[in-house]
Amino acid sequence: MVQYQRLIKKGERLRVSVEEGGSGATAVAVSGGGYFKSTKQKFLSIIFLSFLCCCYIFSFSSFSLLDAFNRESEGFGPYEPFIAPLCSGIPNGTICCDRAGFRSDVCIMKGDVRTHSASSSVFLYTSLKNKSKTPQKVKPYTRKWETSVMQTVQELNLVYRDDNSSLSGNEHDNNICDVLYDVPAVFFSTGGYTGNVYHEFNDGIIPLFITSHHFNRKVVFVIVEYHSWWVTKYGDIVSQLSDYPPVDFNGDNRTHCFKEAIAGLRIHDELTVGSSLMLGNKTILDFRNVLDRAYWPRIRGLIQDEEIEAANKTGKRIQEDGLLKRPKLVILSRNGSREILNENDLVDLAEEIGFFVEVLRPDKTTELAKIYRCLNSSDAMVGVHGAAMTHLLFLKPRTVLIQIIPIGTEWAAETFYGGPAKKMKLKYIGYKIKPKESSLYDEYGNDDPIIRDPKSFTRKGWEYTKKIYLERQNVNLDLKRFRKPLSRAYDFSVKRFGPVYSIH
Predict the structure, then answer these.
(1) pLDDT at position 48 over 70
(2) Distance CA 50, CA 66 (A)
(3) Rounded CA gap, 451 and 408, in Å?
(4) Pairwise CA distance, residues 500 & 504, whole Å
(5) Would you tell me how many other CB atoms lie within 10 Å of the CB of residue 34?
(6) Is residue 31 domain-resident?
């Protein structure tokens, strides 16, 4: 745990340096502002650079060692075209914002970067000889096109400051570095639609991976509109993307200093990672590998606890081993809206076909590691379209996802979950219900436009879709009709693993 202290002697400045691989923080008293390195560090850096340049000449692909030093000495370098293409190759002492993206703005700051939470600002200290340098503003959230939600997101001021100021009592003196990092920063917001699991992954966690993966965890996350519950919920994932504790931008009044920073996150599409837009051609499967690393330590602990408990219960272990010879189907259960009204009958049907069935009822308090364990060990998942389908990210590639699609939700079901499932290498089956399988049929009848022509309502906008087809609709499956996709899922699972599933 890094312990921070603020003052040492009157008239002296304290710099707390947080460095990679060290034993903690190093406090250095300095009488002047800015950054410096010791002669020994410079000498070692020159030797290290010479070695790495040789490696670079012989193998461009082996950039992982080189990138650490490149970032130390030259900034983002080759990563900029992937993060903010319009800001590629910007010099030190520069703020550049790439606003070409439809979904988000991303700004890059190079040089002496310092936080100033009291004014919602991030300062870049540099020479102001060029008076044309203008400040920038950015809302570091990935739904730029949605005016209503963006109005609720905190805006950051990215401001130039003159690094030649040295008079006592000026703004430069008041913004001395309390914590100095030798790694970059990424600023992002956990406001907006945070609280909905789809948006938490789609608008936050996956874009955070996209924007920061190339730093190989040598990066600090500075969170605007920080929520402690978010950090608790997603801390296992965040720790796989950064070796440093996240900074609460508004709650931590200390001045955090960096040599470079990204404000805003890059997003590609719904629940996905565009390989052509990623350094190293990373895909959504690489993101899933991050989830594996994040959750497996906790899952191992859960398994050990259960084994200890089971050791005192005669025969339980033998019974579970027998069940594992059947493909496992997880039914993602809902309550309140888009509920499967005949869920118990669905369980009976799935067991008759040959599945071992587990009904998963997650809520906002359910530990993600437990959800991950359940789905990661499954062969198929069934669920009704909705935010909980985001958990398809927890399924292993080449397993089956059956999405039950209520009337009026066809476009959203395919866009938000069907398409991403295919990119995840899942066997995707979309089951569009018939009008008689919808609770709306009993309410409106076959001739009402809500049943007969859903597009006449959904084309009016999301609010119509939400109020009618999402909030007021449940599902009563025609099990004779649903047997077909369920049997396909079973056959696919058996063929995937072969004879191990032949006994049931």
Answers:
(1) no
(2) 11
(3) 8
(4) 10
(5) 12
(6) no
Cβ neighbours, 10 Å, residue 419: 16
pTM, two decimal places:
0.83
For residues 305 and 311, give the distance between their C-alpha atoms in angstroms, rounded to a whole number.
Answer: 10
Q: How far apart are CA 314 and CA 461, in angstroms?
A: 58
Asked whether residue 68 is assigned to any structural domain, the reply reads no
Q: What is the pLDDT of residue 131?
A: 59
- CA neighbor of 435 nearest in space, from 478, 479, 498, 372: 478
Q: What is the pLDDT of residues 430-479, one digit of tens each?
A: 999 999 999 999 999 999 999 999 999 898 888 889 999 999 999 999 99
> Maximum Cα–Cα distance for the chain, whole Å?
83
Q: How many structural domains comprise the chain?
A: 2
Residue 87: domain span: 74-282
The span from the CA of 344 to the CA of 348, in Å, is 6
Contact 372, 386 (CB under 8 A): no
In degrees, rounded to 5, the angle at the alpha carbon of residue 440 between the alpha carbons of residues 434 and 445 is 85
Angle of helix 228-241 versus helix 368-376 axis, rounded to 10:
50
The dihedral built from the CA positions of residue 305, 308, 313 and 315, taken in this order, carries a sign that is positive
